[in-house]
Design brief:
single chain; alpha/beta; 13 helices; 12 strands; 13% strand; globular; binds pyridoxal-5'-phosphate
Length: 387
């Protein structure tokens, strides 16, 4: 088989689409005015921002006034958690979340714990899903915030967000969701799902890295994260990144329009890879829920091999994949997500994530199915554990 380049790490980041680049370009060299300026020339930039805000709002079922542009998903996560905690510290100091959130959430929670907040981490079981009964049981009179990710970046599990939202609304508790992996890939509706705050990031759906947005339900008055000028209705200071905001708006519009078809196409690729791997490689297991799963996520544990060795050999064959989350690679700790769903260290270390999006093809899948089994065989032949 001829060597190919296969990009199967779309959960880490995606290629910016040509349409998005084309939409952005004029805002670097033609309409480069500062949107806060009063002359007509700056109006082009200002209008572009408001157009993008409307595109993001439409994709979420929100109103434009509820959308704030930020620098990345990490910033939105920090703002939501620390802002809520600061705002409501007098009312209560208890927060509910999960043990397998992205580090932008987990490390923000650690900071809050050091400041005297208490966090309950709901169990996520071996399928990687929280149970609404556990949430109900965890709620206390001093609970001020529930933050549960929409979809997990490593194992792709989608949470029962609408049910969680309904419980939080009924109990009068603010509900934040890190929807960075979900936006553009599965339907999200902040009204129907009773979401009060939502984080999203452009580079997970074919917009550039370094631009994100926060949905803040009208009336949720969490304080600023950044102090400075009066941009974003004085809630997020800093001169707006106009080209990237335009790119984010364009990308979310395209993704939303393509979603019904594209999510089916990508899910078929995912299933082809999962079934193919189960068929071709003995002692392999799928991590995460097969039903409630992002269309583009495949995560497997392959017994008796090291994920890092698999990655290096896949790389030699032209395949980009991941063994943990990109943020933790380089460290030898097993993935906190795989630990949270009950895997032992050895199994977690032998895990691989493949993630697919708009540019993924069936040829990519078939190539992985061709090159991975012999790699596993070779590594197992050298492993003292494989007998
Ligand atoms: C990528 C990611 C983030 C961080 O977004 P950045 O824009 O890279 O800061 C947060 N949460 C999840 C679930 C992610 O996948």
């Amino acid at each position: 088989m001829e060597k190919r380049f296969v990009y199967a790490d779309n959960a880490a980041t995606t290629r910016v689409s040509d349409e998005v680049v084309a939409a952005m370009l004029p805002y670097f060299t033609e309409y480069y005015g500062n949107p806060s300026a009063v002359y007509g020339f700056a109006g082009k930039a200002k209008t572009a921002i408001e157009n993008a805000r409307a595109q993001v709002a439409a994709a979420l079922g929100a109103t434009p006034g509820e959308i704030y542009f930020v620098s990345c998903g990490t910033e939105a996560d920090n703002w939501a958690l620390k802002g809520t905690a600061r705002m409501l510290a007098e009312k209560g100091r208890h927060i509910i979340s999960t043990p397998f959130e992205h580090h932008a959430i987990l490390h923000s929670l650690n900071t809050l714990e050091k400041e005297g907040f208490e966090v309950t981490y709901l169990p996520v079981y071996d399928n990687g899903r929280v149970k609404v009964e556990d949430l109900k049981a965890a709620i206390r009179p001093d609970t001020i915030l529930v933050s549960v990710m929409f979809a997990n970046n490593e194992i792709g599990t989608i949470q029962p967000i609408a049910e969680i939202g309904a419980v939080c609304r009924e109990r009068g508790i603010l509900f934040h969701t890190d929807a960075v992996q979900a936006i553009g890939h599965v339907p999200v509706d902040v009204q129907a799902m009773n979401i009060d705050m939502l984080s999203l990031s452009g580079h997970k759906f074919h917009a550039p890295k370094g631009i994100g947005a926060m949905y803040l339900r009208k009336g949720v008055g969490i304080p600023n994260f950044m102090d400075g000028g009066g941009q974003e209705k004085k809630r997020r200071a800093g001169t707006e990144n106009v080209p990237y905001i335009v790119g984010l708006g364009k990308a979310i519009e395209i993704a939303t329009q393509k979603l019904p078809e594209e999510s089916k196409r990508v899910a078929a690729l995912r299933d082809r890879l999962m079934d193919g791997l189960l068929e071709r490689i003995p002692d392999i297991k799928i991590n995460g829920d097969r039903e409630n799963r992002l269309p583009g996520n495949v995560n497997v544990s392959i017994k008796y091999v090291e994920g890092e060795s698999l990655l290096m050999m896949l790389d030699m064959q032209g395949v980009c994949a991941a063994s943990g989350s990109a943020c933790t690679s380089g460290s030898l700790d097993p993935s906190h997500v795989l630990m949270a769903i009950g895997l032992d260290h050895a199994t977690a270390h032998g895990s691989l994530r493949f993630s697919f999006a708009d540019y993924s093809t069936q040829e990519d899948i078939d190539y992985i199915l061709e090159v991975l089994p012999p790699i596993v065989e070779k590594l197992r032949a050298m492993s003292p554990l494989a007998k």
